[in-house]
Design brief:
- The protein has 361 residues and is α/β, with parallel strands linked by helices.
- It has two domains: 6-185 and 271-353, Vaccinia Virus protein VP39 (Rossmann fold); 189-267, no CATH class.
- The protein has helices at residues 13-18, 58-68, 74-86, 90-108, 124-135, 189-195, 238-246, 299-309, 325-332, 344-353; strands at residues 6-10, 25-30, 39-41, 48-51, 109-119, 140-147, 166-173, 184-185, 198-199, 206-210, 224-227, 230-233, 250-251, 260-264, 271-272, 276-277, 315-318, 336-341.
- It has an eight-stranded mixed β-sheet, sandwiched between helices. A four-stranded antiparallel β-sheet has the order 9-10-14-13. Strands 3-4 form a two-stranded antiparallel ribbon.
- Strand 11 and strand 12 form a beta hairpin.
- Helix 3 runs antiparallel to helix 4, helix 3 packs antiparallel against helix 5 (124-135) and helix 8 crosses helix 9 (325-332).
- The chain is elongated.
- It binds S-adenosylmethionine (SAM).
- The site of S-adenosylmethionine has 19 residues, from strand 18.
């Protein structure tokens, strides 16, 4: 099925990924089942749309044998270590399904491309071993903690564990040069109150006062002169200081006080993005973006990942696209995209979300 910006494909992602050319994708985001032991149904339905139950069976045995075919491959070594560590049960059955899909995702990535794997803290460490084997530990860029909820019923009295409120997102890049567009998040209210204490009369703009003296003094080449009755080594030339004063950017609290720079809050980009994301809410039960598809991720999460790790018109791939969150985010940000899912219900929902008519194909 083709679209202006993308392709939506129904089927097992492994076969589809293996049929794609090498090095053609700029960004892969994978949100596979997490090995939760659950069957997932759409809101209001009893029929499962996908299963997240794993057991050691003939298929797992064959998947393991394929992974161990070439024992010199790093991923084969990692899988055999996990086989010894975990034994042949649900956890390994899950990992032997993911391993070839991660390998195939890496293969289609360009050398400048990045991969984000969304998982949970239980499987995360094993998946990280697989990704280290595939990408080399030098390809590891970040482990992002997405705090989905502020409190969760796991933490209620009687449950002897802390509430599980976060997912893990593992970020790797294929090469030593990768796309990174800095992102910023708003300052917290307490920070603003503390540091941007001043409010400009008339405009209501918040600002803080910044140092105008030259760091390291004259020895560092800062010019020393008299400015508003104060002689210091200054950060800027006399002319630049005069220009700043003329535009109201310099504050002297009283005659003789050291003049300061007026830094407006609304001119600051915000806090550079960190690896703990607590500002993105999960898709709410009654939220406008809710499709009813289980495990649907919020658009804001995918928009952040795509904006950080790809450029306009780059190609974004989601091999476990579900309701199509990544594809909608990619479309909004002007990226090309490919979505794959083995569930017809997922593809149906993604199509509807992307505004495709049934006749489009
Ligand atoms: C956690 S959900 C993805 C949810 C999605 N991120 C969203 O926002 O809606 C995982 C998806 O992987 C799909 N899936 C599981 N195994 C697959 C496979 N081998 N090939 C393709 N899709 C698969 C499931 O049908 C399910 O839709």
């Amino acid at each position: 099925m083709g679209h202006v910006n993308g392709e939506l494909l129904l089927g097992d992602n492994l076969a589809i990924l293996e049929g794609m050319p090498e090095s053609c994708v700029d960004l892969v985001y994978l949100d596979p089942p997490f090995n939760s032991g659950s069957l997932y149904a759409q809101t209001g339905s009893r029929d499962a749309v996908f299963s997240d139950r794993w057991r050691w069976d003939g298929a797992a045995e064959r998947a393991l044998a394929r992974l161990l075919e070439d024992p010199t491959e790093p991923v084969s070594k990692a899988v055999s270590a996990l086989d010894i560590l975990l034994g042949r049960g649900p956890q390994l059955a899950y990992l032997v399904v993911l391993a070839p899909r991660l390998a195939a995702s890496r293969r289609v990535l360009k050398n400048t491309g990045s991969l984000y794997l969304h998982c949970d803290p239980r499987s995360g460490p094993y998946l990280r071993v697989l990704l280290d084997a595939l990408f080399d530990p030098r390809g590891f860029r970040a482990e992002i903690v997405w705090r989905r909820n502020s409190a969760h019923s796991d933490g209620k009295q009687g449950h002897q564990v802390p509430g599980r409120v976060h997912d893990t997102i593992l970020f790797y890049s294929k090469g030593s040069r990768w796309t990174w567009n800095p992102q910023y998040t708003p300052y917290e209210a307490a920070y603003v109150e503390r540091f941007y204490r001043h409010v400009e009369p008339g405009t209501g703009r918040r600002y803080r006062l910044g140092d105008l003296t030259g760091p390291g003094g004259v020895a560092n080449g800062n010019p020393r002169y008299d400015f508003l009755g104060v002689t210091r080594p200054w950060r800027f030339s006399r002319q630049r200081m005069a220009d700043l004063a003329a535009t109201g950017r310099i504050v002297q609290s009283r005659p003789g006080a050291v003049p300061c720079f007026k830094r407006y809050l609304d001119e600051m980009p915000g806090v550079p993005l960190q690896d703990v994301w607590a500002d993105i809410r999960p898709v709410g039960a009654h939220g406008s973006e809710r499709t009813g598809y289980p495990t649907q991720k919020p658009l804001a999460l995918l928009e952040r990942i795509i904006a950080s790790s790809s450029h306009h018109e780059d190609l974004v791939l989601d091999p476990f696209c579900g309701s199509g969150t990544t594809l909608v985010a990619a479309e909004r940000l002007g990226r090309h995209w490919i979505g794959i899912d083995s569930s017809p219900a997922a593809i149906e929902i993604a199509r509807a979300r992307l505004g495709w008519q049934p006749s489009e194909g």
